[in-house]
């Protein structure tokens, strides 16, 4: 039961939230384009907010792709292997993804530490928020991957 609840939370954060963020991004960019073309003015904060929303959409959207087995590079190789090698290749691929995520998280925290005093000019928000979305996305990818691995292990056990 706890695994289902965790899966639901991760899928919400990796599928629903990025979809909502993308919708907001489209509305903001479209509004700025309309303002520039029809009213000869620009929404001052639109570009900076678009950057934040795009980063959040991509990094959280990666969680949804991972949860649904849509990490293209991994599937491309693992699915082409003979069936007897597939479980080992999936395990190896999962371990590599976990290691890569851990390194990206480490890099994101380093970026947060160095950018903690810089802010977006018009929004006034700290610029480390983009790196925080990256770290959050990678943490959720790891959590989802570990959840998938645990579920696969349960299925394979007699």
Account of the protein in words:
With 158 residues, the protein is mainly alpha-helical. 79% of the residues lie in helices and 0% in strands. The chain has five helices and no strands. The chain has helices at 2-39, 46-67, 72-78, 86-114, 128-156. The two termini are 20 Å apart.
List the helices and strands and how they pair.
Layout: H1 2-39, H2 46-67, H3 72-78, H4 86-114, H5 128-156
Entry keywords:
about 160 residues; mainly alpha; 5 helices; about 80% helix; elongated
Q: What best-fitting shape do the alpha-carbon axes yield?
A: elongated
Strand coverage percent? under 5%
How far apart lie the N and C ends? Answer: 20 Å
Biggest sheet features:
none
Return the average pLDDT rounded to an integer.
88
Uncertain ranges: none
Q: How many β-strands, per DSSP?
A: 0
Number of helices: 5
Q: What is the SS-derived class?
A: mainly alpha
Assembly level: single chain
Whole-angstrom Rg: 19 Å
Share of helix among residues?
A: over 70%
Q: Secondary-structure element sequence?
A: HHHHH
Summarize the structure.
The protein is built from five helices and no strands. The chain is mostly helical and 158 residues long. It starts with a helix and ends with a helix.
